[in-house]
Every structure is written in structure tokens, then in C-alpha cells.
Amino acid sequence: MGLEISQTYARVGINRTPAALEIKTENAKLELDNKEPKVNIRAELPRVEIDQYECFASSGLKGPIDLTREFAQRGYQNVLDYIAKTAQDGNMMAAIESGGRAIPEIAARDAYPQHEFGMVSMPSAKPQITVKGSLEIEPERTSEGVNNGVDGVYTPGNVEIRYTPDKIRFYMEQYASVNIKYVPENKVDEKI
User: What does the pLDDT read at residue 1?
Assistant: First the structure.
């Protein structure tokens, strides 16, 4: 009698899916919109005005109206001086009782008049120099409030994280088995 024993081993199959980590980001955005500031500038070019009237007047070069005024003033002063001198001469002659020689003294005084001379530089007055012109700077005011004309839009960033966990699957690819078979013996001699 013969026994035939055959055996198959167990085989385990493994399916593995690796873990996955996906990260998707979107950056934050800040969008600014501003209105440019405006400044209004108005300028008048500078002008230099030089008034030399006083210089010319102190040198004797005057206009007709001023010359007429000056001559009238001088004539008035001469009249007053002459009246004062005539009154003084009359007083000297009226005081004949006090003695003295009033007429020869008056004649000697009027015969040799005294003049005053002085040294001056021309012109004696300075010119008047004035600079005229203007500059106006005016910023344009707007009713923009605290932001001063700047508008901002902020979009926050976004982060998406997707995680796929690791998967391991075990399965039996082949089960273990033992096979025992009875094989009857062959009584025939094959050699003969």
C-alpha cells in the first residue's frame, strides 16, 4: 500500500496604498486703490520795482508839481523871514533912546550877507526797492475721511489640506492544504 502526501503552503497577499498628503495654498491678496493727492499752485512771477524819485528829488531833479510846492514853501519862508527882519529893524530904530547907531548897523548887516556852505553827497536818499509777486499753494481737500483717499480690499489666504491615510489590505492568496492520497500498490512485476 502506498500513501502519497502533497502539501501546499499558505500564501498571504498584501495590497498597500501609501498615504498621501496634498496641500494647496492660495496667497493672501491686498489690493489698494488710491486717489493721487492734488495741489493747486498759483504763482505770479516776481517783479522788482525800484522807485528812484527820492534820489532824484534830493539831487534837485523834481517833477513840476513838487518844484512848484518847494518854490512856494521857500517863498513863504522868505516872506516870513523878511517880515521878521523888518520888524526887528523897526524895533531897533524905535529904540533910538537907548543909544546906538541903528541905521549903520542895518546897512552893514545887509551889505555883507552870511551864507552857510556844507558838503553833501548826491544822491542823499536811497531808492525804494520793493519785490512784488505771490505764490499760493493750496492742497485739494476731499471728504475721504480717515483713509485719505486710499481704499483697500484684503482677501485672506486659503490653505486646503487633503490627507489620504495609508491602506493595507491582507488577503489569502493561497490557503494551506495537505493532500493525502492512497495509491494501491501494483503487484505486477514489470521486469519480467
Answer: 56
